[in-house]
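Training component of the fellowship. As part of building independent skills, the fellow (R.M.) carried out the full modelling exercise for a liganded target. The chosen ligand was zinc ion. The inputs are recorded below so that the supervisory panel can assess the work.
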Amino acid sequence: MKIHIAFWIILTNFSMLLTAQQADKPYFESMTEKDVIPTEDAVLNLENKVIPKEIYNEAILALEHYPELWNTAITFQFKDNIKKSTMQAQPRWASFLKSRKKREYIILISRTIQIDQDELSFSEVPSDVVTGWLGHELGHVMDYRERSGFGMLVFGVKYLYSGAHIKEVERTADVYAITHGMGTYILKTKNFILDHANISEAYKERLRSLYMSPEEVMHLLEHD
Ligand SMILES: [Zn+2]
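Fellow's submitted model of the complex:
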């Protein structure tokens, strides 16, 4: 048991050292370095996607912006409640030890959004806002695809403890969505949350402090 823990500590420290060197790279620089796979005539492969009917149209629309995800298995799944967020993209543990190319992903969607008194049901969220939300999550999947299994473990640990890391990760997901033509949807999603009278201030504050602001998204769209 002790050896196990020691090994784990060495492993995480060593890997943090490795990733620390890359952490200061500007996001756009690292974005342009990534290979863009040429798009095929059909941009959507539904054989490896699982989509609940409540968000079917929105998920299809979002997926059409990411032809690179053709071979990537993704399951969209509702969950009763997700801590601190409305959606969450993560690798499937069962596929974790497989090669990067065979790794599968799951996007969890909360049925309710945290608001002050009662609950805002997901079904009350406008379609474009849902599309933007899904576009952001698919941005996370794009980011995860670039990481090794080991890199994903490190990533998970850092996400728990580092605000700066969360900021970078959330920004990367937004930039992926924007560069894939989903900027206006992303903007609608952000504005929906920030302008919604009933969504809790704590939720909004988290969005303001850790996520790209609507102004910044607009700035990027103007320079597209
Ligand atoms: Zn996110």
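The panel noted the following from the submitted structure. Residues 2-222 form one domain. Residues 136, 140, 170, 173 surround zinc ion (CB under 6 Å).
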